[in-house]
Write a structure and sequence with these properties.
Elements (H helix, E strand, L loop, with lengths): L3 E8 L40 H11 L3 E4 L1 H6 L12 E4 L12 E4 L2 H12 L4 E4 L1 H9 L5 E7 L17 E9 L2 E8 L2
Parallel strand pairs: 1-5, 1-6, 2-3, 2-5, 3-4
Antiparallel strand pairs: 6-8, 7-8
């Protein structure tokens, strides 16, 4: 059965973007250091091939069968050109949704609907979750199964925090120490 897994790069002080994050600057503005573990794109359409353990983690990301992404993250990322590794993308959206950028993009009314439809679409594959606000909402509702955090050894000081207030217990599943990043995997405790 599909699991919902948050995949996010985060600074040691808890930020997933730099202070200049915004629609004109993209999600990594001021925080590009958080994504250096991926290496340089190897093709025009952002595709990466990081070496070693980071490559293993990236392969897991690319094996997911659907994506649930927060609207702000989706907009700031330029909608990924309407395609995130050839799988359905579900975007919780309040109000009247815009026209989808491609047949892969599905605007849905809320996070629970997004997760239900994404798990159905993913089949036996996991569902990639992306976005801080969405992650917080899914955690509060008990709809997030695991967290895969790429912990980067940098203190940004400002930006967008991944987690808000509130206690959530986690069970460590895996720690992979790779050059420039520690990949941390947790199961959300029931």
């Amino acid at each position: 059965m599909a699991k919902s897994v948050l995949y996010m790069s985060m600074s040691l002080d808890g930020f997933i973007t730099g202070p200049d994050n915004g629609p004109a600057n993209g999600p990594a503005a001021g925080g590009l250091r958080l994504h250096q573990w991926l290496g340089e794109p190897v093709s025009e359409h952002p595709h990466f091939d990081p070496p070693g353990l980071s490559g293993q983690v990236f392969a897991e990301v690319m094996a997911t069968g659907a994506v649930v992404v927060g609207r702000k993250t989706f907009d700031y990322a330029g909608h990924w050109g309407g395609d995130h590794h050839g799988v359905p993308i579900f975007v919780p959206t309040r109000g009247t949704p815009p026209e989808p950028q491609s047949a892969w993009v599905h605007y849905v009314p809320d996070a629970a609907t997004a997760m239900r439809e994404a798990k159905a679409a993913a089949g036996d594959h996991d569902v990639m979750v992306h976005g801080a606000g969405l992650a917080q909402s899914l955690l509060r509702k008990g709809l997030l199964d695991e967290l895969e955090i790429q912990l980067i050894p940098v203190l940004l000081g400002k930006g967008r925090r991944l987690f808000g207030a509130g206690r959530i217990d986690l069970e460590p599943r895996r720690v992979l120490d790779a050059p420039g990043v520690t990949h941390l995997r947790y199961r959300v405790a029931s």
